[in-house]
Design a protein that fits this description.
By secondary structure, the protein is mainly α. The chain contains 25 helices and no strands. The chain is flat.
Length: 703
């Protein structure tokens, strides 16, 4: 049976169980094994094993039945025990309810008895207290204080309580009959009050917080309680301002008192608020007045810097004090304290700010023009100036007196940075010092000053001066354009970074944007006029080079077989000049402006070369040389990186082929891809430039 039990392994699988049984049986192996396969022996083993399993099953079944009977017996016993416990619990619960009702009854009786005792005891206590007060009152009436409570200094607390009550009683007595006793009580009241305050002062100097708390609690019912608070506030500030920074000292003082005041007074928030009010109205106000009054009339710059610094430090201190418990509306309380200090300075702040900004900006500009030894001329404004501007736009003629600038742009990045820095500081002060309702209006006033001195007095003046220059052939106006472009970026950055946050939610936003738009459009018109005039000067310089360097014999040489040059000298000099100007334009402008100006220059350059080539007659070798020149011009046009300009020169190069093509091929060339869309008169005009045009053969082929 033990062997049979060993064959049961978890998890049980019947096939594996049979397999294990076979391998354990002698003769149960395969025929190829060490022991021959014996089916009879294996059958015998199976029969024996089945009998063993049947015996084991019967034994286990008897054991299971025995356990089931035992389990049923125990379940009946447990159920009986639970029923007994439920009965016991019900009995206990009934006893508990009876006990609870009894306790409630007793408690009701006790409360009723307590109320009766209190009703008897309270009048008795009042009567006892009234008797004592009458006794003490008689002592004052007799004029001799014999009670120990008045003569013993250690019982000052009890004496204070008694005298405070007597003082209230004396207030109700008629003056004509009790004037003397009322006077004595008042005198004693005053003496005790002074003693208590003196005791509080001494305890504060000794640092005895518990004693201070006791005395303050007694003084709470006296008229002199506020004087006790004043003494506390005064002594707190002794030795508190030892550093050079009064704001830091005040913050440390308030933080120290905030930790202490709750352990002393029953109304700590009121005491702390009174301390802060004292610090603001006495210490800070006198300090601010001292710092501002000495420079208010003599030095506007220092006055504004000091005002901004003091106001900022005061508001920062106020923000720190917001952490403390100062009552219900501490924000309004602190705002009123700040306003009481600075109201006389903030009322006319913007007038001082704008006045200083104007004078400072004017000084910066004048100092710059003085360094250039330049006497600034006045620029007209109003209707006449507008009329001149419109005439100049239509005619491109200089109006007004001519000026020789000697190549000076009269634009300075240093001046611009200084003006923007001054304005930035003004915007920062405006943001901090202006009332929220006045902030957009004040910021707009500062912006108009910036426009006046930066845009009109500096940039616009430089543009007007550049347009009035009689020697614009040196093309220095491009330097003006470059610097003006840089300045516009700086101006726009300050507009977005410092002005926009101040006016973004007010009607002044649209007003500022409109003013900025008008200024930029006005200056762009002048820049366009100057650039147009500069391009005319460039074309004029090219004409001068071509007129001086180009010879008729270049395209009709005397010896056709002895031409050694690849392109003419005029072409070399013009291309060198054009490349230099293209580079200068790219350095002076940015974005789409570069492409726009280069396209205009390229179109004018093409027209100049086209008209220039129309002036000459070309032999066969001269025509080849003209093609080489145009090829060089086309290479130069590639530097423009403008497709339209390159297309124009490609077409011109194709036209020049008409100067050298054989008469028999003229029609074929004219119908080519690049020339097919051109007007026939243009083609004819180029063919007429050939030296052999008048030959009957050529005329016949082109007709």
């Amino acid at each position: 049976m033990a062997t049979t039990a060993e064959l049961f392994e978890e998890p049980f699988v019947a096939d594996e169980y049979i397999e294990r049984l076979v391998w354990r049986t002698p003769g149960g192996g395969s025929r190829g094994g060490p022991e021959a396969f014996d089916p009879k022996r294996l059958l015998e083993e199976f029969v024996n094993h089945i009998q063993e399993l049947q015996i084991m099953d019967e034994r286990i079944q008897r054991k299971v039945e025995k356990l089931e009977q035992q389990c049923q017996k125990e379940a009946k016993e447990f159920a009986k025990k639970v029923q007994e416990l439920q009965k016991s619990n019900q009995v206990a619960f009934q006893h508990f309810q009876e006990l609870d009702e009894h306790i409630s009854y007793v408690a009701t009786k006790v409360c009723h008895l307590g109320d009766q005792l209190e009703g008897v005891n309270t009048p008795r206590q009042r009567a006892v207290e009234a008797q004592k007060l009458m006794k003490y009152f008689n002592e004052f009436l007799d004029g001799e204080l014999k009670s120990d409570v008045f003569t013993n200094s250690e019982k000052i607390k009890e004496a204070a309580d008694i005298i405070q009550k007597l003082h209230l009683i004396a207030q109700e007595l008629p003056f004509d009959r009790f004037s003397e006793v009322k006077s004595k009580i008042a005198s004693k009241y005053h003496d005790l009050e002074c003693q208590l305050i003196q005791e509080f002062t001494s305890a504060q100097r000794r640092g005895e917080i518990s004693r201070m708390r006791e005395v303050a609690a007694v003084l709470l019912h006296f008229k002199g309680y506020s004087h006790c608070v004043d003494v506390y506030i005064k002594q707190c500030q002794e030795g508190a301002y030892l550093r050079n920074d009064i704001f830091e000292d005040a913050g440390i003082l308030c933080q120290r008192v905030n930790k202490q005041v709750g352990d002393i007074f029953s109304n700590p928030e009121t005491v702390l608020a009174k301390l802060i009010q004292n610090v603001f109205e006495i210490k800070l106000q006198s300090f601010v007045k001292e710092q501002l009054e000495e420079c208010r009339k003599s030095d506007a710059e220092q006055y504004l810097k000091n005002l901004y610094d003091l106001y900022t430090r005061t508001t920062n201190l106020s923000s720190k004090l917001m952490e403390f418990n100062l009552g219900t509306d501490k924000q309004t309380f602190l705002s009123k304290l700040i306003k009481s200090i600075f109201i006389s300075y903030l009322e006319n702040y913007i007038e001082v700010e704008t006045g200083y900004l104007k004078s400072r900006s004017a000084m910066i500009l004048q100092r710059y023009y003085d360094s250039k030894n330049h006497q600034k001329r006045s620029i007209g404004t109003g209707g006449i100036q507008d009329l001149k501007e419109r005439i100049r736009q239509r005619t491109n003629l200089p109006l007004g007196p001519s000026i020789d600038t000697h190549g000076e742009t009269f634009l300075s990045q240093e001046v611009v940075v200084n003006l923007l820095q001054e304005t930035k500081q003004a915007f920062e002060r405006c943001h901090r010092l202006s009332d929220p309702s006045d902030l957009p209006r004040n910021a707009f006033r500062i912006f108009t000053i910036l426009v006046e001195f930066l845009c009109i007095e500096h940039i616009d003046y430089a543009l007007e001066t550049g347009l009035a220059d009689s020697r614009n052939a040196n093309l220095y106006f491009l330097d003006v354009v470059q610097q003006a472009n840089t300045i516009f970026h700086l101006f726009d950055k300050q507009f977005n970074d410092h002005l926009m946050p101040l006016i973004s939610s007010s009607p002044k936003l649209s007003e500022c944007l409109q003013k900025k738009k008008e200024i930029i459009e006005q200056m762009e018109m002048k820049l366009d006029t100057g650039i147009d005039r500069t391009l005319n000067c460039m074309i004029g310089q090219m004409k001068h080079i071509l007129a001086a360097e180009q010879k008729k014999t270049d395209f009709k040489p005397e010896d056709e077989n002895n031409v050694l040059i690849q392109y003419t000298n005029a072409c070399v000099k013009v291309c060198a000049y054009v490349r230099k100007q293209v580079e200068k334009i790219k350095n002076s402008m940015d974005g789409k402006n570069v492409d726009t100006v280069l396209m205009e220059l390229g179109v004018r350059f093409h027209r100049l070369i086209y008209e220039h080539l129309q002036q000459y007659s070309y032999s066969c070798m001269g025509g080849m040389l003209a093609i080489c020149d145009v090829a060089e011009y086309r290479k130069c046009a590639k530097d423009f990186k403008i497709p339209m300009v390159l297309h124009l020169f490609d077409t011109l190069h194709a036209l020049c082929n008409l100067l050298v093509v054989a008469p028999d091929n003229l029609k074929q060339v004219c119908s080519g891809e690049q020339l097919a869309n051109l007007d026939k008169n243009i083609l004819h005009s180029f063919v007429q430039l050939r030296a052999d045009y008048r030959s009957a053969r050529l005329a016949r082929h082109f007709s």
